[in-house]
Amino acid sequence: MAEHGAAGARARRWPRRLGRRLAQSGIAALLGLVVLPALAAPSLPALTAPPLPAGAGQQAARRPLPAAAGVVDFVAFGDMPYDRFRSIPAYRHLIGLINAVAPRVAIHVGDFKDGLGDCSDAVYAEQAAFFDLIAGALVYTPGDNDWFDCARLGDDPLQRLAALRQRFFARPQSLGRQPIAVERQSDLQPEHAIYRENLRWQQQQVLFVTFHTVGPDDGADVGNDALRAESRARRQANIAWLRDSFAQATRRGARALVLATQAGMLEGVRGDRSGWVTPAFEGLWRDALRPLLDASPLPVLLVHGDGHHFHFDQPLRGAAHPLPRLWRLEVPGDPRLHAVKVSVDPDARPPRAPFRVETIWNPMSLDPKLR
């Protein structure tokens, strides 16, 4: 693993595949032989957030969680595996590398298949099985390829979203071999009862929050009335969830926040801190993220995917509306099948940053580069 400091601002977005995958049955048969043996789940430290008792109501879910000083580690990855034939061996190997690091929680930031791939229940079951190879807890937040882009193959995206929610978010707990209890927006905010994929949990003094966005523009400009309505409703749910989560961070005595989502919302020039928010997400930033980040004294890390290039930086530190306590991590994605270990140190003081990252480099990656 190679340690990295702040990189430049985000490079241009990874171009989506426009052609169908070539049939490679011979290669698939050969690559199918490359399989890692099952890995024993290591003994992992317990989270400070215990499982909620059966039937616990909203007040129990909101009860402040005990906190303890210390560095919190987790792993982030996403935008993989795209090619069911070529990527799977490297993806299995990466899962083994993640398990060797033994994080209590790993986060997949969406797009577990390519945008032209099959959207069937069988594919969802296959990806759920991969998630359950993670030795600790696996938290997943959906990407556009996982449901929104299913219209490209003639499927109903909203029906696929409902199936995705039932498959991956049926219970208030994570995936993985050692799942953790999570809080779901659907349980805590009845007015947003369908958004069971928006999750929250606390590990020591760090509050983690996922919120559901999809790249590249959150479905805002699609020529389908039902999908545009879905995008607007989901944005309102995200705003309510983010506002409540920042308030909970204060009530629970959290000292750092980690936000995870799929879409990349920030643009800029490599090496420049004068970045900007992409137009499709300006409403979310205007109504929620920007005022919340302005008011909060906590360091905040925004983890996302969609661009497929590794970046770790502070893209808005020198912007016209500066946000000096915001860091951004974009994880590498297929064909760069690598992951990122993140260490959160709430006690860090300048010049030390509260967030430190190390790449989990995968020698079986289809493309060994990070960017």
What does this structure look like?
The chain is of the alpha/beta class and 371 residues long. It has one domain: Metallo-dependent phosphatases (Purple Acid Phosphatase, chain A, domain 2), CATH 3.60.21.10. The protein contains 8 helices and 15 strands. The protein has helices at residues 25-31, 58-62, 88-101, 121-131, 157-168, 185-188, 225-251, 282-295, and strands at residues 2-4, 72-77, 105-108, 137-140, 183-184, 199-203, 206-210, 256-260, 266-267, 276-277, 300-304, 311-313, 326-330, 339-344, 355-360. The strands form 3 sheets. Strands 5-6-7-8-11-13-12 form a 7-stranded mixed β-sheet. Strand 6 and strand 7 (206-210) form a beta hairpin. Helix 4 (121-131) packs parallel to helix 5 and helix 7 (225-251) packs parallel to helix 8 (282-295). Residues 1-68 have low confidence and may be disordered.
| Count of spatially separate domains | 1
Strand order of the largest sheet: 5-6-7-8-11-13-12
Proper CATH architecture: 4-Layer Sandwich
Rounded to the nearest angstrom, the radius of gyration is 19 Å
- Spell the H/E element sequence: EHHEHEHEHEHEEHEEEHEEEEE
Helix content: 25-40%
Q: Which regions are unreliable across 5 or more consecutive residues at pLDDT < 50?
A: 1-68
Strand segment count: 15
C-alpha end-to-end distance: 16 Å
CATH topology grouping: Purple Acid Phosphatase, chain A, domain 2
Structure classification:
alpha/beta
CATH superfamily: Metallo-dependent phosphatases
What characteristic shape results from the CA principal axes?
Answer: globular
Taken as a percent bin, the fraction of beta residues is: 15-25%
Integer average pLDDT: 84
**Number of helix segments?**
8
The largest pleated sheet is described as:
7 strands, mixed
- Per CATH, the class reads Alpha Beta
